[in-house]
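Record type: monomer structure entry
Structure origin: computed from sequence
Chain ID: A
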Amino acid sequence: MGNDATANGAALSSTAILPVTAAAPKLPASMLPKIKIAVLGTGSLGKEHTRIYAELAKSGRVELSGVFDVSNEAAEKVAQRHGTRRFRSIAEATENADAFSIVTPTNTHFQIARDLLCQRKHVLVEKPMTDNAAEAQELVRLSQENKALLQVGHVERFNPVFDYLQRVATDPRFIETHRLSPFPARSTDIGVVLDLMIHDLDLVLAFVKAPLVSFDAVGIPVLSKSEDIANARLRFENGCVANLTASRISPDRMRKIRVFSGGATTSYISLDYRAQEGFIYRIAREGEAESSLFKKLLHSKDSRIVSEFAGRRIVREPVPIAREEPLKMELAHFVECVQQQQQPKVSGESAKRALDLALEITRQIERSKPADWNPT
């Protein structure tokens, strides 16, 4: 049964997202304060945060103050690898840093982020920001009240694939996403919607410039008590439909998005977030067929005419995407926002929209779960 987004109350209401401050000119790099940053959590993702901050420290942009983990051994290994300090507690880390990456289990995010924001510390918390809407709203309030930056780790927003998509697909009419992976050794405290699908929920909500009006969702638990496979179909006020599939029991990894776009240039775009590559299918522009450049294009390895009718041609061509490491771009953005006192691209308010929807989808799946399900 479908859910009317407007009927679910504030949980799915369109949250006002404050824009990144653009009125004040950016300071030159030489005038920026060096930010002291600490990483809380040194698991598989926390190690990558530490690596990138260590690289930024070498360039003089930040000072990597240290790392903390409940496992002293894990924290010590990461600290030694990157020539930094292992903090004995979060309190010790708080005394020695201005900004923090919180890369700990989801059920610890709220308490850690709340305590740091109350001390006017800047925070990047990995997604999902919390496991319930009330706690997420409280973090947003504390961030505003204490004038402390709150960014949430929706890393795909920094993927060059998404930047390209926003530039080219100006009138999305149908969106399809697939995010698949083998069963993880992490994030087993949450279902696949909060673990994986939330990335695509965040992207779609940022991409489609219209309110969400309804959704349908289904999910199945396979190896855990929560859903391990899920599908959601979103409908927006402007008629756009998005079909999202997530699985964490797939033998292969996949992170793809396909978009049918209207507007001045009708197109179909198929993109791969992992490979940072893809194709655009579009109608050849008038006169393009006769140009020498067009002929060269069609003789290239990956470009060709895929269909012709009444003198019109549909062209497939590879998209021009410069490959970058999204996590590195995300953390560099966090540092810059702290230094420049700017609102981040993925603010707490923005991330809460995706979290609210993910929680609504999870609840609908939970209500439809077979009563006799008891995974072994």
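Annotation 1: Residues 157-318 form a domain with the Dihydrodipicolinate Reductase; domain 2 fold (CATH 3.30.360.10).
Annotation 2: Residues 6-23, 290-294 have pLDDT under 50 and may be disordered.
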